[in-house]
Structure formats: structure tokens, C-alpha cells
Automatic annotation (TrEMBL):
Belongs to the V-ATPase D subunit family. The keyword Transport applies. The keyword Cell inner membrane does not apply. InterPro entries: V_ATPase_D. HAMAP family: ATP_synth_D_arch. This is V-type ATP synthase subunit D. Keywords: ATP synthesis, Coiled coil, Hydrogen ion transport, Ion transport, Transport. Produces ATP from ADP in the presence of a proton gradient across the membrane. GO terms for molecular function: ATP binding; proton-transporting ATP synthase activity, rotational mechanism; proton-transporting ATPase activity, rotational mechanism. Residues 33-60, 142-194 form a coiled coil. One of its GO terms (biological process) is proton motive force-driven plasma membrane ATP synthesis.
Length: 205
């Protein structure tokens, strides 16, 4: 809609319609921005907790690794670690939060099958293996939260730009155009009324 349109009733109606749509759009966008902000604040809190849990899990894992190395020797621990199979069972799903596609990661619980001789290594090796499995789970959880937070923040930034554009540019321009066209139409009506009075006076003289 060209806000510099000629001052006609048709253009005034069109501008008023566009203004109503813009105000409704602003309200929807602002509501979306608030929802995204609340989700983002929640994710930031979750990320902080997940980071703390991951640090704790790492400390525990390296503690048992040090014990296993002390009990069995670095070479034996390295050979045992090489025998543990890698897991590629990570499941990825996607859900939508206010238009943002957020990945959901699921790491199925694994059965820790024997990958080395229990007679050759101490119990600390088993504890280290279980501890690093927990580290892996914590890493996946933190990655999911951080990825979701990044996507929501990006969406919120775009939404904020649209909100600002509607609030500071589009709506004020339409309101100004509405006032100018209304004023021009009122002036035109006054001129027409004056012209008719003059004509009527001439006809009656």
C-alpha cells in the first residue's frame, strides 16, 4: 500500500485496513517475542545446570581413570580403552518452538558388555568406563540445550527486528497517512459545501 496515495475515500479505507493488520501483526509478533524470551531464559538456566553436571561428571571420570591407571598401568588402560566399541546410536528428532526447529537428542541406554578381561584389570577400570559413559550423556544433553538456545535466540532477534519495524516505522507512517488523507478529505468536503452554498445563493438571487 502506497502511503502517498491520492486522498480518496477508497485509499483511506485501504490504509485503515492495512493499519489494523499492522497493529494486529505487531501484537502477535510481540507476544511471540515474549514467549521466545521466556523459553530462552529457561534454556539458559538449564544450560548452566547441565554445564555444572558435566564438570562434575568429568571430575568423577578422571578420578576413576587415574585410579585405573595407578592400579593397572597406562599401557593396560590404553589397550582396554581401544577394545571398547564405539556407539553411534544417537537418535535425533526435531520439534518446533514458535517456528524454530529445535533438535531433540536421545542416547539410548547401552548395555556395558565386557570388552576386556576382568581378571587382568581392577574394578577402577569398570568405574572409569561407566563414569565416561555418563560424561557422554551429559555432553549430549548440554549440546541439545545450547543448540536450542542458539536457534531460539536467532529467531528472537529476527522477531525483535520485525517488532521494531512495525512499531517505529510501519505503524507511525500509516497513522500519519491516515491523518493526512482524512484532513484532506475533510478540507475537500468543506470546499464542496462552500461551493454548493455559493451556487445556491446565485440560483436564488
Amino acid at each position: 500500500m502506497d502511503i502517498n496515495s491520492a486522498p480518496t475515500k477508497g485509499n483511506l479505507m485501504q490504509i485503515e485496513k492495512t493499519l489494523d493488520l499492522s497493529k494486529n501483526g505487531y501484537q502477535l509478533m510481540d507476544r511471540k517475542r515474549m514467549i521466545l524470551m521466556n523459553e530462552l531464559v529457561s534454556l539458559v538456566d538449564q544450560a548452566q545446570k547441565a554445564q555444572e553436571d558435566l564438570e562434575t561428571a568429568y571430575q568423577e571420570a578422571y578420578h576413576y581413570l587415574a585410579m585405573a591407571t595407578y592400579d593397572n598401568g597406562m599401557l593396560s588402560v590404553h589397550e582396554a580403552a581401544e577394545d571398547i566399541p564405539e556407539s553411534n546410536d544417537l537418535e535425533v528428532k526435531v520439534r518446533s518452538i514458535m517456528g524454530s526447529e529445535v533438535p531433540e537428542l536421545r542416547y539410548p541406554e547401552q548395555m556395558l558388555l565386557p570388552a576386556y578381561s576382568f581378571f587382568d584389570l581392577s574394578l577402577a577400570m569398570d568405574k572409569a568406563r561407566m563414569a565416561f559413559t555418563k560424561v557422554n550423556e551429559k555432553q549430549i544433553k548440554l549440546a541439545q540445550i545450547e543448540n536450542a538456545a542458539y536457534r531460539l535466540a536467532n529467531n528472537m532477534q529476527k522477531t525483535q527486528k520485525r517488532v521494531n519495524a512495525l512499531q517505529n516505522v510501519t505503524i507511525p507512517q500509516l497513522e500519519t497517512a491516515q491523518k493526512e488523507i482524512s484532513a484532506a478529505l475533510e478540507e475537500k468536503e468543506r470546499e464542496e459545501f462552500t461551493r454548493l452554498k455559493v451556487v445556491k445563493r446565485i440560483l436564488n438571487s
